[in-house]
Amino acid sequence: MDLQRERRRSLNSLSLCGTGAIGLGLWSVIKTIMTFFANRNSIAEMISDIYTNSGVSEEEVSLKTVAFITYLLILAFLVLVFSISLYVGKCANAEAKKGKKRYLYLIIALLAGFLYIYSCYLGILSIRDLTFNEASLTDDINNSIDQIAEFLLDLSSAGVLLALFFSAIRSRILSNMISKQEAAHEL
């Protein structure tokens, strides 16, 4: 009976991590949209600078068109990120509640977990490389707070996705052990 209890714990953990994956995916989208709107003037300036420095005249390319296309690409990326989070979370919940075993979501969760770990590594490097001087102290502090918050979000996302992966694997192993145990008792 201990195996049954452990399996239920793994399935509960899987369900919780699935819901967490959906929530963190939604939060990533909201955070990106908020950051985007807070920095839209600097993004527009950056796009303008790119085209000014590339030698393309404003008559050849409308900066508004380029900005619109950039916004659409970012929106498409956000939809993709949330769709992946939603797929992983729903598959995890379906396996935990209905026993539907799929493998693609586990591969996606594992890959995304490792990408978040890599993002954490890059975040640590960028925080470490910050230099604080008196001329831009306020900007540096705000930038470092943003980077620390992003690091914590990435770390949480990695933890949830890797916990989801290991909970699914553990529950599958325990299910197989229970099946073998029941088959042995029937003989």
TrEMBL record:
Domain of life: Bacteria
Transmembrane segments: 12-30, 68-91, 103-127, 147-169
Entry keyword set: Membrane, Transmembrane, Transmembrane helix
Designated name of the protein: Uncharacterized protein
